[in-house]
Amino acid sequence: MTKSEALKLLKCNVTELAEKLGITSQAISQWPEKKIPLAREYQIRDLAKGQKPLNVTSSVA
């Protein structure tokens, strides 16, 4: 999943996505555009389904 696809899926901007994931927008800005971290992709897919996202360790941006 790309960063743009994640934002489109949740219909939000970077700041809102950061709040939903409990991370900073600066962390999201470090994600590659072409492929976001897999753990974050799972969280975003959970959010899109209306589910609580899995907990991810702080070592994943």
Low-confidence stretches: none
Rg, please? 10 Å
Instruction: Indicate the overall shape.
Output: globular
Distance between the termini: 15 Å
Question: Structural class, please?
Answer: mainly alpha
SSE string, helices as H and strands as E? HHHH
Number of helical runs?
4
Query: DSSP strand (E) fraction?
Result: under 5%
In total, the number of strands is 0
Mean pLDDT score? 91
Helical amount: 40-55%
Q: Largest sheet, described in full?
A: none
In brief, what are we looking at here?
The chain is an all-alpha fold. It has helices spanning 3-10, 14-21, 25-29, 38-48. Helices cover 52% and strands 0% of the residues.
Question: Can you walk me through this structure?
Answer:
With 61 residues, this protein is mostly helical. Helices cover 52% and strands 0% of the residues. It contains 4 helices and no strands. It has helices at residues 3-10, 14-21, 25-29, 38-48. The chain is globular.
Summary keywords:
61 residues, mainly alpha, 4 helices
Detail the topology: elements first, then pairings.
Blueprint: H1 3-10, H2 14-21, H3 25-29, H4 38-48
